[in-house]
UniProtKB/TrEMBL annotation:
Alphabetical GO biological process terms: methylation
Keywords: Methyltransferase, S-adenosyl-L-methionine, Transferase
Protein name according to UniProt: Class I SAM-dependent methyltransferase
Source organism of the structure: Streptomyces blastmyceticus
GO-annotated molecular function: methyltransferase activity
Organism ancestry: Bacteria, Bacillati, Actinomycetota, Actinomycetes, Kitasatosporales
Length: 229
């Protein structure tokens, strides 16, 4: 769980005390995840989860796609935002970590709304395009293999509807994006992805300094009547 970048600890704590409404189910899932190897670094901040719920609810979302489940904290946040009768498809490379979250999804009463797909995300996304068609999702959250973000992004643009929203996590990558000595593959990939989205004439976008960096993306009006990006 990346901290809120760029804020003094005292101010971050004040924001948490003044705005966070994390309930017991989410808190216990977060605490369970933090006990896993690298768990604290891999899960979303609770404030970010709360923002995801708000954004998805504003869409409003009947169909949500999540790329990267991990232990399902963000999955639970997004499932709670679904419009009545809605469905969330979440995909991960293994069921090892989502199994941890599944009991919390059940406790929260949203397990019946969640469709977990296990396998290579690129294959899963391709199958969704084939089986369900372009423009069938209202909200997409990307938080998976950083080096494959461009692939996930292109699939998301195909799958998201005309007025849908794409949210991409970790686009400041622990602040390493501005460190010239950070040349590891993930940091390099995030820098390249940020440039790709900034220069993409098909979309409107904003990288906001929330948590570890969140980029909000939607199709430009002239793109919204096309079934493919």
């Amino acid at each position: 769980m990346a901290n809120q970048l760029g804020l003094p600890a005292g101010l971050s704590e004040y924001i948490r005390e003044s705005s966070l409404r994390e309930d017991g189910v989410l808190r216990r899932l977060r605490e369970t995840t933090s006990e896993l190897p690298a768990g604290s670094a891999l899960q979303v901040m609770p404030e970010e989860g709360q923002l995801l719920t708000l954004l998805a609810g504003l869409t409003p979302a009947r169909r949500i796609l999540e790329i990267g489940t991990y232990t399902g904290y963000s999955t639970l946040c997004l499932a709670r935002a679904l419009a009545p009768g809605g469905r969330l498809v979440t995909c991960d490379i293994t069921d090892r970590w989502p199994r941890i979250g599944a009991e919390y999804w059940t406790e929260a009463g949203v397990d019946g709304k969640i469709d977990l797909r296990i396998g290579d995300a690129v294959d899963t996304l391709g199958a969704l395009v084939t089986d369900e068609g372009p423009g069938t999702f209202d909200f997409v959250f990307i938080d998976a293999d950083k080096q494959r973000y461009p692939d996930y992004y292109e699939s998301a643009l195909t799958l998201v509807g005309d007025h849908g929203l794409i949210v991409v996590d970790n686009t400041l990558f622990f602040g390493k994006v501005v460190d010239p000595d950070a040349q590891d593959p993930d940091t390099t990939a995030i820098r390249a992805f940020n440039t790709l989205v900034r220069d993409d004439p098909r979309v409107e976008m904003s990288l906001i300094p929330m948590a570890d960096g969140m980029t909000l993306i939607r199709k430009k009006p002239e793109q919204r009547h096309s079934s493919t990006p």
